[in-house]
Amino acid sequence: MMTAAAERDPFAGAAPWADRLLMKLRQRDDIDAEEEAALRSIIEPPQAYPARRVIIEEGEPLERSALLVEGLLARFKDMRDGQQQISELHVAGDFADLHSFTLKRLDHGILTLTPCRIGWVGHDALIAMFERFPHLGRLLWFSTNLDAAIHRAWTVSLGRRDAVARLAHLLCELQVRLEIVGLADPTGYPLALTQNDLANCLGLTSVHVNRVLRELRERELVTFRGGHVTIADRAGLCDLAEFSADYLFLEKRPR
Amino acid sequence: MMTAAAERDPFAGAAPWADRLLMKLRQRDDIDAEEEAALRSIIEPPQAYPARRVIIEEGEPLERSALLVEGLLARFKDMRDGQQQISELHVAGDFADLHSFTLKRLDHGILTLTPCRIGWVGHDALIAMFERFPHLGRLLWFSTNLDAAIHRAWTVSLGRRDAVARLAHLLCELQVRLEIVGLADPTGYPLALTQNDLANCLGLTSVHVNRVLRELRERELVTFRGGHVTIADRAGLCDLAEFSADYLFLEKRPR
DNA sequence: CCGCAAAACTAACCTACGGCAATCTCATTC
DNA sequence: GAATGAGATTGCCGTAGGTTAGTTTTGCGG
């Protein structure tokens, strides 16, 4: 069953690289077939990028946004003294820099942490789509506000949780976000990060992340080894982290 | 000169409580007279709230958003052990919880730190306005993305700056944000916060904030006393904080 | 002008995490 | 299968900031 939009665009209706984005959005609101086709049609076929490549430089003028199709991306900021802070991790299905649609440039860089596939979307195509489907505009606005909610959760972690709870909280967050897009099962998920990457997310040093990982392992809560997170005691982990998924807005509602 | 929208609504064209919001938005993009009238017309006359009142509870269903007309608001989260973390401060002219337009509830509470005046805006009125003026929709989307950029700056502070630089950075941020809405002169600004409030922003204790304020005073960079921030050496302060206003997106551009 | 509470300030001590350096593990390449 | 290098791991010690427990100052209602 093809919609009008789908017939005009040879990619629409197909474009499987938008699948995880749709899973993510449909967790929060209904999207009808016409909207789906419109959304799929504006996302260009994904391009591959190697790990550890800065794909968007801080300040660079932007006329398109990046839909992460596969891999892990980080929003990061480098300090004078060589330290780095990551302000958000992005998983498949995330629009990593939809913020640039209104900001026109970013206040931070975006970096691949693993090999990635990215489908670009032109800002002009977004404007056209929003004129026809204001509801999709609100949904993507929602998704940037969801990023802001994640930022706030990280702020709370960095400000008020100790290193153990902070790491536990991050692992809980990723568990939920990856489950939504079908990349985690209830016992854990693949996570191709180094301990140093985790340190850059958590405002710690890699040495201390190592100590904390050992503690979490010894307390039989989680194991992170060989690029895989195995959650041994989910309830215990959430409790330690004071984690609640409320800030991820998983309920389906008209937005 | 009255526009069509202004003639329909007795408050439009007047509604001076939207002045600072307009100053803030016009710093980033042009707004024509018709848009201005539409925006003014949907903001209800401000209501007064005393200091230290939670005006929005975490999770509460929301059908309107708060434009801060006067005073200081905080987005906050309380921890099990009684600690509090503030994830953003809002000054006059800020839409404090425009995020709830798409989120429908908040992942945090909103609290008055000083006596405040707030003009409420119904979400239905926003939808109607956006249908007629998509450009205003993008501008307000921009303003939620600006909040996200501020969140990221705080994340970097909390993760990678020591207490002195962290406090200095916050004081720099407020200087710029208050200047935009005409509430700071180049030498400083009124700031009716306690040292404990600052501690809750910075992930510190009030005791340590006190020590750090003394250090900043002794280094002749800033003084915070009697609810007023006096900047003695702006360049030195920015340098210490590694502060750049880039993340506040002060340039005027079509959004 | 007094009495009171909240906030500011100080000092002595304590601890979570950083800094540094050495060693270990493991995957990759020739 | 030896050589290499990135990342993981551990131990020791230093320090930024927390904790506790005060004292002092400020603002304010009566």
UniProtKB/TrEMBL annotation, chains A, B:
<dbReference type="InterPro" id="IPR036390">
    <property type="entry name" value="WH_DNA-bd_sf"/>
</dbReference>
<keyword id="KW-0808">Transferase</keyword>
<keyword id="KW-0805">Transcription regulation</keyword>
<dbReference type="InterPro" id="IPR012318">
    <property type="entry name" value="HTH_CRP"/>
</dbReference>
<dbReference type="GO" id="GO:0003677">
    <property type="term" value="F:DNA binding"/>
</dbReference>
<dbReference type="InterPro" id="IPR036388">
    <property type="entry name" value="WH-like_DNA-bd_sf"/>
</dbReference>
<dbReference type="Pfam" id="PF00027">
    <property type="entry name" value="cNMP_binding"/>
</dbReference>
<keyword id="KW-0804">Transcription</keyword>
<dbReference type="GO" id="GO:0016301">
    <property type="term" value="F:kinase activity"/>
</dbReference>
<dbReference type="InterPro" id="IPR000595">
    <property type="entry name" value="cNMP-bd_dom"/>
</dbReference>
<keyword id="KW-0418">Kinase</keyword>
<dbReference type="Pfam" id="PF13545">
    <property type="entry name" value="HTH_Crp_2"/>
</dbReference>
<protein>
    <submittedName>
        <fullName>cAMP-binding domain of CRP or a regulatory subunit of cAMP-dependent protein kinases</fullName>
    </submittedName>
</protein>
<dbReference type="GO" id="GO:0006355">
    <property type="term" value="P:regulation of DNA-templated transcription"/>
</dbReference>
<keyword id="KW-0238">DNA-binding</keyword>
<dbReference type="InterPro" id="IPR014710">
    <property type="entry name" value="RmlC-like_jellyroll"/>
</dbReference>
<feature type="domain" description="HTH crp-type">
    <location>
        <begin position="161"/>
        <end position="235"/>
    </location>
</feature>
<dbReference type="InterPro" id="IPR018490">
    <property type="entry name" value="cNMP-bd_dom_sf"/>
</dbReference>
